[in-house]
Amino acid sequence: MQRKFGNYLRKKYITEDVGAKKFMTGKFLKYAMVDSNTIIKQVEELQILIYDSLAVGCSINKHFQVGAIIEKLSPSWKDFKIYLKHKRKDVYGGSDFEALSCGGSQER
Q1: What are phi and psi of 105, to 5 degrees?
Q2: For the chain, which residues score pLDDT lower than 50?
Q3: 40 near 69, Cβ under 8 Å?
Q4: Which of 11, 51, 64, 93 is deepest in the core (most CB within 10 A)?
């Protein structure tokens, strides 16, 4: 009986964990920035999504985070997006940013 209950709990929480990761991934990917809200508020919302994803066990490469935020900028930010994509210094103070190619170190 105790073993069955232990297996039940393990399966339940493993399933919930995977479900939470999928939910957070979907929420992050579906997030879209709009012109009607301030850019600061929207970046903060994205940062919260990233932190929530980390809390459920999803690791997100820092270069991917930066690239995703840049790509999620609304169309009215087109010129700034282009500028950021061609910026050669990493925003974290490191060497070449590699134009968002997700190359270099695999920081998590």
Answers
A1: -70, 150
A2: 95-108
A3: no
A4: 64
pLDDT on residue 36: 92
Main-chain dihedrals φ then ψ at residue 43, nearest 5 degrees: -65, -40
Question: Two tokens at 103?
Answer: 């190359």
The Cα–Cα gap between 90 and 100 comes to 10
Which pLDDT does position 95 carry in this prediction? 43
- Report how far residue 70's alpha carbon sits from residue 84's, in angstroms, rounded to the nearest whole number: 7
Helix 78-85, helix 62-72: angle, nearest 10: 160
- pLDDT at residue number 100: 36
Per-residue model confidence (pLDDT) at position 62: 84
d(CA 16, CA 10): 10
